[in-house]
Amino acid sequence: MASFFTAALKSFKGGEEEPPKGPPKDAKEATLPSGMSREEFEEYQRQLLEEKIERDKAFAQRKAGRAAVRMHLRSKHRLAQDERDDAQLHVAGGAVELPQELAPMVHGEEEEEEEDGSAAAFAFLSKLRDVELPALRDRALGSVGEVKEKCALM
Fold this sequence. Notes:
Layout: H1 2-13, H2 27-31, H3 38-76, H4 83-91, H5 103-130, H6 133-153
Helix pairs in contact: 3-4
């Protein structure tokens, strides 16, 4: 099949044969881009490698920060932890703090719940002091008596 297309292509070109392309005579010319000396090319390759390492570190830090957020949220809501998040923190070096832009999401909700919980508990306790237990008991017994009468009629 390939030979068919090759023959058709040659007939389109007029049957001209192209000289075979081989490697250049000088091996250094094969590895170096045009216009660069060997030292410039090595410096360029070193810079590319350093930039790649920096990007990889930054990416690992971002992933570890997200893993830290997930771990905080799971512990806050008492959910099972994921080993992948632990591994992500280990890859980043273990000492990862919450990202500044995501920290309010975790800590803000905790503080609101604590404030709401303590305020609600205080309000409940203050209302509990105002309750008259004998009146509450009489009311409950009266309700039980009404239910017994209705059940007897049915």
